Structures are given as C-alpha cells and as structure tokens.
Amino acid sequence: MNIDRDLWPAIRQHTWKWTSDRVDVRGIIWHATRSGLPGRTAAVEFESACNWFLSPNNRTGGEVPYGGMSHYIIGGGRVARCVPHELVPHYSAGIHDRMAISVEVGQGTNTDQFDAQDIELCEGLAAELSANFDFPLVRIPFVDAQNVGWPGMVGHEDTAQGRGQGKSDPGPLFWNAWEDLVMADPRLDRLIVAIFGDNSERTLPWAERVDVAIYRMNRRVDLEDPPGSGLMPSLAEALATTWWPHSHTAQVTATVTLSDGGG
Ligand SMILES: [Zn+2]
Fold this sequence. Notes:
This protein has 263 residues and is α/β, with parallel strands linked by helices. It folds into two domains: 5-184, Peptidoglycan recognition protein-like (Lysozyme-like, 3-Layer(aba) Sandwich); 187-263, no CATH class. 32% of the residues lie in helices and 11% in strands.
C-alpha cells in the first residue's frame, strides 16, 4: 500500500491519541469520516480528517484523555497512515480497537456515494492486512462487547460500541460499493453470487442475507470454479469455516470444494 501522507511523526507527540495495549489484530473496523457537510468531496473529507487527527484540540476526557483516531484515512485516492499497526488509536471504536486495524474512509454525509478509487484502495489495504495478520476477508455481522465475532471485517455500525453510540458508518453505500468491485472480478464472480446472491438480493437486510448464504451453503451449493480462474481454495475455506451464523438454529455444515483452474 502506497502511503501518501504519514501523520505518525506528528501524532506520536500527542500521547493521548494512541495506546500500547494492543491485544491482537483479528480484523478491520471500517468507518466513514462524515463531517456532515453536504457536497464535500472525499478529497476534502480526507484533508479535513488529516487536520483533525493532527490537531492538539483533538482531545477529550479528564484523567485519561483521548482523541478521535484511526490507523488509516483513505479519501480522494489518497492514503494517510496515522498510527502504526502495533499501537492502538485512542480511539475509533473503544474496546474493539485493541483487536483491529481501523480505517476512516472519506464520505461527507451518509447519502454521499463513496469515491470508487477509495473503495479500490480499501480493498488493496484489506488484502495486505489480511495476508499480514492472517484473518479472512469476510464481513462480520456483529462484534459484541466481549469482542466475540472476530476474525474478519466489520463496520463500526456492527460493533457493540458503535451501536451503543448510534453509529451508522460506513453504511450500505460502502458495502454495496465494496461488493460491486468484488463482483466485477471475474475470478470471484460466480463464487460470490453463489453464496451471497445477485443484485436482486441487495435490498434484503444484511442479517437475512447471512441466513440466505447459510441456507445455500447447507444445501451444498455447487461452487464451480470458473474455467481457468484459479480461484483460491483458501477463500472458500474461510467462508465455510469462519462464518458466524446470524441465527443459532442454522448450522454451517457445507463442504466447499473447488477445483483449481478448471481441473
Ligand atoms: Zn465510526
């Protein structure tokens, strides 16, 4: 991942903005910047978030002050590193930050579309982090207050801390854009559709889609490898073994087998 701005040398001086109580990296927490100002481009959101993270006024609390912070900011096709992986931003999502890499993505309001190049950068960063820290690139329906739910990727909206605070970021526009990009990949196209459905199912609430996916896996949906695509068996394995069922009545029992490259 190409880092356009490294804010860490400056943020490091503000010791209330980070902590060293890292537990483990078990996934990613996605956020949206959401200044709330309509019409702001992702590039302006990026600059604004960088300025806020650098500001000495970004300080809250009494005896143990903290600042709004994340590991990365992505916006307008640019990436800023704020805090190194081995440290914890204090904070983006409270208790969950100790087990995650957090990323703020530029979005002015919750109805603004994300910048397509930013979603590409997000997927690139996610792929790197997934390889470095060995967690699957699956969306987690919910991470609870005891951090049960990892590993994978979660929206701030789907964490116990986020729901407690009424957070809705990054929201459906982020996940739809993410899915659009993934589904445009011919190698993954058939696998994703086989499990998660096509565009017609986008309107279903996420929890129902999880149930649908589990249902399909239970029915041992035939996950054929598109000819010559070289689909990664590890991806299918990750989907089959790390999925947390939304409904406790559902059991993931699918055996997913893939041939490698049309063999
Ligand atoms: Zn957030």
